[in-house]
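Continuing from the previous page of notes. For each protein in this section, the sequence appears first, followed by its structure tokens. Read the first protein now.
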Amino acid sequence: MNEAPTPANANEAAARPARRGLLLVMSSPSGAGKTTLSRRLVAEDPAITMSVSVTTRPPRPGEVDGRDYHFRSLAEFEAMRDAGALLEWAHVHGNCYGTPAGPVMDFLAQGRDVLFDIDWQGARQLNVKAPGDVVRVFILPPSAAALRERLERRGQDGPDVVQRRLAGAAVEINHWDEYDYVLVNADLEQCLAELKAVLAAERLRRARQPGLAPLVQQLLSGLQSRT
């Protein structure tokens, strides 16, 4: 059971300067575990929100429109793209994926973090548009054999699709060095802990805490008045 904060702790929390949100981008080859990591992070950290992408692919069993993706026709997707309503978009495995701009920028301004489960093409576009806000994390599988086993075990795709995803994995992995952090998902709990450590550190960057300068001035004024 969580205890109520003491007055001292409450005062410290109130004095903590507000910060700007960040855009946490996670990419990996299909089957490396980024979707599971994303869902766990959002479930366990109330300060981060999952960006819901628009896609032209059909829903998989259990997926819900508006929760997992915004499922749209190709014509609807192209209309959003042409109107400038997407922060980034990419063509992946025969389907289009993109990020609606409006909700993401609103969260960012409110100091909330936004998590992206996108490929290297989207990560590159997003970093061009908002370089100071983006933190890029690449998730690697421990081996090619493990990646194949994970894709086959989840049973969502036929053998031809699995083979296509494995071929695409090499393309995706070739862009690993464009990312700020690279994690190897050999153990889910360990990888999740490392992901949380990255997020905690990035939240404390000086550039993401615009309220620090006034706080420092206040501290210095208070100290000078006592001398």
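Done with the first. The second protein uses the same format. Note its length before scrolling.
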Amino acid sequence: MGFELERILTETEEFLRRNLGSSARREAKKRRAQRQIEEFGRRARRAGLLAAGLLATLVVVSILVGGIGLLTFAVALPTVFLFALLSMFRPSGKRRAEAPRGEAPAALALDELARRAEEWLLDRCDALPGRALPAADRIIARLAELQPCLAELDPGSLLAGDARRLIGRHLPRLVDSFLELPPSERATSSESSQRLIESLGIVADELGDLLAQASREKHLSFETQRRFIETRYKEDDGLKGE
């Protein structure tokens, strides 16, 4: 009876974690939807410019050669719009790099790598054990916070190298190697699942340390301004009673 109750509670917890989601995952999905809208806008603008350029070229050629036959226009116009339509399926420059697959693309900017890792992990949350989701949520939240800090980081620094290895290599290898296990080994109550939870927690903590180091200059700037305000105004009696 006790074992059956424990199983029911575990399944209920699993169901709630998966179906209710978390604020970290909801915010990550909103960010991804916004990026998809922006990507569609970039593709649409590119397609429009391509169609306009081809049509302008067609008009110029028509003027230079003294007119183009109706049949030529009948063939050229659908061709122009076909090329424009096909260009909609080609990713823009910001979307060409692949998501992490165990090796971090060397040419990929660190903030972009963190963004891709955020989306990559979000897509794999449904395949992770329910009890691993809180740790995964922490990682997703940290990756989102890290992106503006990593954008300002010197790519050649030791901290940048650590970030690239952790985000683009070690994290995806950990998750992918777990997902390659047999289904029985990936069950919520399995030893492998417990080890995954512990490892994801370590990654989340490490990303927190990375965030603290990457934002150190911002903290120093804030403390400098805070001390200036306190020194300048806190004990300034000249401002009181006026």
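What the second structure shows: The radius of gyration is 27 Å. Residues 43-94 form one domain. We return to this in next week's lecture.
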